[in-house]
Amino acid sequence: MDLGCGCGVPTSRLLADKFRVVGVDISDVQIDRARQLVPKATFRRADMTAVRFPSQSFEAVVSLYAIIHVPLREQRPLFKRVFRWLRPGGLFLAILGSGRWKGIESGWLGSESPMFWDHASADTYQRWLEDCGFLLEERKHVPEKGSKGHVLFRVRRPE
Ligand SMILES: C[S@@+](CC[C@H](N)C(=O)[O-])C[C@H]1O[C@@H](n2cnc3c(N)ncnc32)[C@H](O)[C@@H]1O
After folding, report:
1. What is the pTM assigned to this prediction?
2. Which of 16, 62, 66, 139 has the smallest count of CB within 10 Å of its CB?
């Protein structure tokens, strides 16, 4: 699953070459674009904090630069749900914030709507993920010009 898939490019598209992919995004426009751009994947317009999937229905969940747009209080419960959606041994790959920050910016990348961010520090994210039962496999800083960057977490539900 690609959680917060945007228009499906590049992540869902790359994954759909090898796997059955479900993309989830809250934006109607992005889901319409994703369906056109990545016909091999299935897309669902939904709020990731409310969407329902059966337990143990995915081998992997990927979420790049998306969970940080959800209010922080919703993120920890979301990690617990991701854990449940994964089969034992399943992988969760997420790009999250590197430091605590909450804010809204207008005109971000030319967007007409204001953009909202809310993220914890990398240490807090690691603790929340481990508290859910995930095993940490990789934590890596992802630099970004003009910002503190992000942190990539690769964690696994134990067998
Ligand atoms: C910065 S984009 C990243 C898109 C894609 N993952 C990528 O790396 O190109 C963040 C995406 O998260 C989606 N998003 C934000 N809040 C969401 C929510 N509550 N549920 C589902 N998608 C959400 C937005 O619509 C947007 O497409």
Report:
1. 0.96
2. 139
Comparing CA positions, the residue from 121, 57, 49 lying closest to residue 78 is 49
Q: Which structural domains are found in the chain, ordered by start?
A: 47-156 (3.40.50.150)
Please give the C-alpha separations between residue 35 and each of 1, 4, 31, 138, in angstroms, as whole numbers.
15, 14, 6, 31
Which residue, among 9, 8, 36, 10, has the nearest Cα to 23 in the 3D structure? 8
Residue nearest (by alpha carbon) to ligand 1 atom 15: 69
Residue nearest to atom 19 of ligand 1 (CA): 47
| pLDDT tens-digit readout, 39-82 | 999 999 999 999 999 999 999 999 999 999 999 999 999 999 99
Nearest Cα residue to atom 26 of ligand 1: 6
- Ligand 1 atom closest to the CA of 74, numbered from 1: 19
